[in-house]
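Researcher: Please predict.
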Amino acid sequence: MEKQIVVLGTPPRKKIEEFSRAIKASTLFDSNQRQANPNTLIYRGAIDRLKFHQLAKSLHLDVWIRSIDAKPIQLFVADMEATVIQDEMLDILAEERGIGNEVSQITARAMAGEIDFAQSLIERTRLLAGTPETQLKELCGRIRYMPGAKALLTNLRASGVRTVLVTGGYRVFADAVAEACGFEEVVANAPVLSRGVMTGELEHPICDADTKRAVLLKHCTDLGIDPGAACCIGDGANDVLMLRACGFPVSYKGKPIVQEIVDINMTHGDLSTLLLALDANNTKVEQA
């Protein structure tokens, strides 16, 4: 089946030509390619997505691997930390609690897929025992949003796309993000509190990679749509199952484990760059 490689936005023509030459000279494909127009290359067969996204990043381009049979998007499911917001909130909380290095190392290993996410969250939450609920709520005021996040969600909602935030992070932060950005539903984890203080335990079931995939499929069923009509965005190992299950997987400065999967890994523009692809996705592909 043919696919397109589309350069998003309006970068200088010289930059597009440089990218086109690099693609044609590379070993990224296992079959021939042809140029449809200055911004679009058509190919058949497999592509080394990790190397492809790394090449695009090196040239400061956001590039889309577009399926010819792509469906209009009706559902958007997003990870939160390092995707919709800039920080890992547990890492920031841990810094305030004086255990930043210990917690951030566990976070990094989990996001890289080196250790099980659920176990990593249990360990980090245990280390944060004694944190007052007031500190969690105060930290919500320090959430830093990714550039373009609010614009992306505003436009998705205006287009009638259902928006869901699903995160392995804490519910208190996710609720604040959902309210600020306009997500319709939130699925997240919650630390157990006793008299306003974290006990070091988590409420069950824990929201993990399997949960994210299940949330995606549940909303597809509720909407009566195929998962091919869903766009998911995430950055780390905990998002892989969800990304593999949807029709339009994307990331924003994703980890290598995610770049191997996604159609777009945005590194140059902000999150609103995704709107260019989503708008085009609703238009029938002209096969050159």
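Model: The chain has a mean pLDDT of 91.
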